[in-house]
Specification:
Order of helices and strands: HHHHHHHHHEEEEEEEHHH
Number of domains: 2
Distance between the termini: 48 Å
Number of helices: 12
Structural class: alpha/beta
Number of strands: 7
Strand content: 5-15%
Low-confidence stretches: 1-22, 236-246
Length: about 325
């Protein structure tokens, strides 16, 4: 049996002293990423949104600190961990444990049920939407959102098509759609992106078969002077020669080649210019799908998956803006 004093001493040791972390050397990409996000995420403001709904100390087992659970939740989004995988990662990876504010010798570490209950709390009170709005407000306060033009687009998110589950059927809230010659099963994330800053200001989620053009209004914030979309948002009167005036809003989409004819040089030049401007809308999709590894839905039903997707785009905004935010927050990248 280890003497009591020795056990106390071990609990007081830092991670570096126990040998879990190197005392010096090259920082890993994950360590750099977490250091940057620690700075740019408005933790106190996000905690303030959740705190009114978070369990209070009282009789029974005290809840884990709210800040710890929030950090664990966003790490799940950044690194694609399920609830059980997140629990194991906290035990296995000192860097993640340190980011969450958990000591190597904590008597109580959050288990997968605790992590699950925190996510359910966010879902119950629709806090993903509030978190996205708060992040957008922070970015606007820093002057990073211009709001004069919006680029709209949508991306397909795959869902499991297998029926080898408890219900013996596919998710009834997911549907099929055809893109090119390929069929897809799942849902769609529709976004509106500021044409100058490249930041997402609006997110809407639907089942996969919903046409992009029907969601255009939901992707606008209402203060735009111009909106740009791909051919999925095309209407007969939206061309270079004649496009609709919807109030004070001009909507531009690529000019379609006429049946049996060819585009003029002017029309081709316009389409190339429009494609170059519209390319900015692809960056958030790249961050969510490649940087954060979100290529397939994790849950069943639109509500739960929408909550995760909205959270992912809020975090994508912070990632995209980090180089501009760090100097404003007093941090200079090496």
């Amino acid at each position: 049996m280890m003497p009591t004093e020795q056990m106390k001493r071990m609990k007081q040791l830092s991670l570096a002293e126990t040998g879990f972390l190197p005392k010096a050397g090259k920082q890993t990409r994950k360590a750099v990423f977490l250091a940057e996000m620690e700075t740019v995420v408005p933790w106190s403001r996000l905690e303030g949104l959740i705190e009114p709904f978070y369990p209070k100390k009282g009789n029974g087992r005290p809840p884990m600190p709210l800040g710890t659970m929030l950090r664990i939740h966003v790490m799940q989004q950044w690194f694609g961990y399920s609830d059980p995988a997140m629990e194991e990662a906290l035990h296995d990876v000192p860097l993640l444990r340190q980011f969450a504010g958990l000591d190597a010798f904590e008597d109580v570490m959050p288990d997968e049920s605790t992590i699950l209950r925190f996510r359910h709390l966010l879902e119950k009170h629709d806090l993903a939407v509030a978190i996205f709005a708060e992040v957008s407000a922070v970015l606007s306060e820093k002057g990073l959102s211009m709001k004069r033009g919006t680029v709209v687009d949508a991306t397909l998110i795959a869902a499991p098509s297998s029926t080898k589950n408890e219900d013996k059927k596919r998710d009834p809230e997911m549907t099929q759609t055809k893109k090119g010659n390929q069929w897809y099963f799942g849902m769609k994330a529709h976004i509106g992106v500021d044409a100058e800053s490249g930041l997402i200001h609006t997110v809407a989620c639907t089942t996969a078969k919903v046409a992009d053009v029907t969601m255009m209004e939901d992707c606008l914030h209402g203060e735009e002077e111009i909106a740009l979309g791909d051919r999925g948002y095309h209407k007969m009167n939206r061309t270079i020669e004649h496009f609709a005036k919807e109030g004070d809003l001009s909507v531009l989409t690529p000019t379609k080649k006429p049946a049996g004819g060819e585009l003029t040089d002017e029309q081709k030049a316009f389409n190339r210019m429009l494609s170059a401007v519209r390319a900015i809308v692809e960056h958030p999709f790249r961050v969510v799908k490649r940087q954060f590894g979100f290529v397939k839905v994790r849950y069943r039903g639109l509500v739960k998956n929408t909550g995760q997707i909205v959270t992912l785009f809020a975090l994508a905004n912070l990632w995209l803006a980090r180089k501009r935010l760090l100097p404003l927050l007093g941090e200079v990248r090496p």
